[in-house]
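Why does residue order matter? Because the sequence determines the fold. Keep that principle in mind as you read this record.
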Amino acid sequence: MKFETKAICVGQAADQSTGATIVPIYQTSTFTQEEVNKNKGYEYSRVGNPTRSALDACLASLEEGKYGLSFSSGLAAEHAILSLLRPGDHVVVPEDMYGGTYRLIKEILEPFNVKFTFTDFTDLDLIQQAFLPSTKMVWIETPTNPTLKIFDIEAISEISHKKNAIVVVDNTFLSPYFQKPILLGADIVVHSTTKYINGHSDIIGGAVILNDTEIFKKIQLVQKAVGAVPSPFDSWLTLRGVKTLAVRMQQHEKNAFSVARFLQTQSNVLEVFFPGLETHPGHEIAKKQMTGFGGVVSFKLKGGLNECNIFLKKLKIFQLADSLGGIESIANYSALMTHDYFPKELRQKIGVTDNLIRLSIGIEHIDDLLEDLKNALG
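Structure:
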């Protein structure tokens, strides 16, 4: 099956008991058993639920993976992966990463003596130098949030596997429609399904996709023991959203190209970040490992917080909010929203400056989006 067909069909056969064409919402906490330890595949919805199983199968197929596990949030999914580590283990991570991941590392993992080295992932030599004998994992986020840096998944995976380290890729910004890290050598893919996969800004969710059976069983045990799972209704909403992922991503990207090129022409815009632009430093790597460039555009405005706030308040269609990847367009002031936990000096170092604005480009008519930006920049 092609991608668009898998998004609609895999894990989503007609219900055997009723013939329902769409996977039902199995809104139940528990399942009646025929006798002790004899059931129809499900016992308790924290452990497994038919609606969630359908979502798991679908997401695994889209990422070209064997196993899929859905979680109650992207950070719950990340925590389950990082639970593979033990005190004294070491992880190599990019210095510019999502603020929530950084907080998870600093507040939850490091107090348990898990070690992290933050480095520049655009430099393969620096990555190699960061390895220690205790390195067990390498964490990749590409494109990065919010500066959209591009890291070479295939090259980093090759380096990491020579050191016997597991490679994890956060694929949230592109979705499996535009990037498939497993085919590039990654061991585990993680998503905030809140974003493009669901695509309608009405659920919080996460997912882990992988091929290794032993690692799958370990993460599945964490899921069962901790219980950070999505409800049947949230699973159903995500499954409904993923059916249109392909057509949505095409329109997101088309609109994003137009917005990026428009911003390049504006006198009070200092710099535009979008991997699809030939001026982007990661453009060639992006063309090699991605089939599209996504729907996020970031830019630096002349001025600082005051000027950014004026711009953001003047927007009418773009909404000032956290998150991204929905059908609606959203503007985000990363320094004090997604990356407020970062120390200011680190924010400055990785480019999350006081004049940076991140735009999640929706699927509204492009003329309306450009007019909104033009008026706000005026």
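The first strand starts at residue 67 and ends at 71.
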